[in-house]
Amino acid sequence: MHTLALTPQENADVAPMLAELAAAYDTIENPELIRRAPVLARSLPARLLAFLEEYRIGEPSAICLVSGLDVDEQALGPTPEHWRDSQYGSRAFPQEVFFLLCGSCLGDVFGWATQQDGRIMHDVLPIKGHEHYEIGSNSLQHLSWHTEDAFHPCRGDYVALMCLKNPDGVETVICDAGDLDWSTLDVEALFEPEFTQMPDNSHRPENTGQSTGDPAVDRLRQRSFALIQSWNDDPVKRPVLFGDRQDPYMALDPYHMKTEGWSDRSSKAFQKLCDQIETHMRGVALRPGDLVFVDNFRAVHGRKSFRARYDGTDRWLKRLNITRNIRGSRAWRPAAGNHIIY
């Protein structure tokens, strides 16, 4: 794991900038703030900038942990009951700004029109009634390990989490591809486009939100839902591995993969890969003020189950998707400067 702990002096150095930006904008979703973030990020401590650049370019690990950001849990107030309740008037706004700036050092942040009303920064918290859903707002069920948005050609290079609360020490589980013994696996079979990857449940209309009030945006979003439904009805065959055969990248989400029709070789190769991932899975219990960046090409992640209380004290994280190739999704975005994929 690639790790850095912020010092008290570094916290003191960034605090005025974070407070100023939090006072200048109404929400972390403000398009001007998101557009300015890569430039504003240059004011972060030099040691942190160098650390994030080494993670981005050198790939020393699939997991990057920045710890020690100041978080006053009392000032945060209660964990929201739903992600819809968290966008405006956020008491975590300074921390959200820091998270945005760090993420912007690795690439361009983006959101999905089909997730959390098209927001860039998501809330990860338990929602009453979702206890057994296979989405991030569940609790009593394990969140199965996966590549984030594995089904989509525009999936991010990184998925990032910032912890605001985790009183029960609930573990995020991660497997780094660098820990796997590729010599024991049928890599050639896994490079073949023989595997059907289905869209995950978090992109379904019932888990996304209501009308935006903008007919043009709603039409685009309905187009996205129709495309996702078409992929459910007629799954596209894709490889599980790509890149360098000696040190490959991965894209898989076993819970949402349709295995019917796979060849015997494909099935065996896939099962052996999953078995080895299970063996090398590690748990990371994020603490308030921890930011973890997971290389979405080189790791899979999930979360262990827990019992939510729904009393305002539950686990509460923020999440970002980050891409190093925003132009690769241009056909899916209504304008070059728009960071939402439709």
CATH architecture: 4-Layer Sandwich
Total of domains: 1
Overall pLDDT? 93
Q: Output the CATH class name.
A: Alpha Beta
- CATH topology category name: Double-stranded beta-helix
Topology order in helix (H) and strand (E) letters: EHHHEHHEEEEEHEHEEEEHEEEEE
Distance between the termini: 34 Å
Q: SS-based structural class?
A: alpha+beta
By DSSP (H or I, 4+ residues per run), the number of helices equals 8
Q: Approximately how much beta-strand content do the residues carry? A: 15-25%
Question: Can you summarize this structure?
Answer:
This protein has 342 residues and is α+β, with helices and mostly antiparallel strands. The protein is built from eight helices and 17 strands.
Task: Show the helix and strand layout.
Blueprint: E1 2-5, H1 8-24, H2 31-40, H3 46-58, E2 63-67, H4 73-76, H5 93-106, E3 108-112, E4 122-124, E5 143-146, E6 158-165, E7 171-176, H6 187-190, E8 195-197, H7 215-233, E9 237-238, E10 241-244, E11 247-250, E12 257-258, H8 264-279, E13 282-285, E14 291-295, E15 299-303, E16 316-323, E17 340-341
Could you walk me through the main structural features you see in this protein, from its secondary elements to its overall organization?
- The protein has 342 residues and is of the alpha+beta class.
- The protein has a single domain, classed as Clavaminate synthase-like (Double-stranded beta-helix), CATH 3.60.130.10.
- The chain is built from 8 helices and 17 strands.
- Strand 10 and strand 11 form a beta hairpin.
- The longest helix has 19 residues, at 215-233.
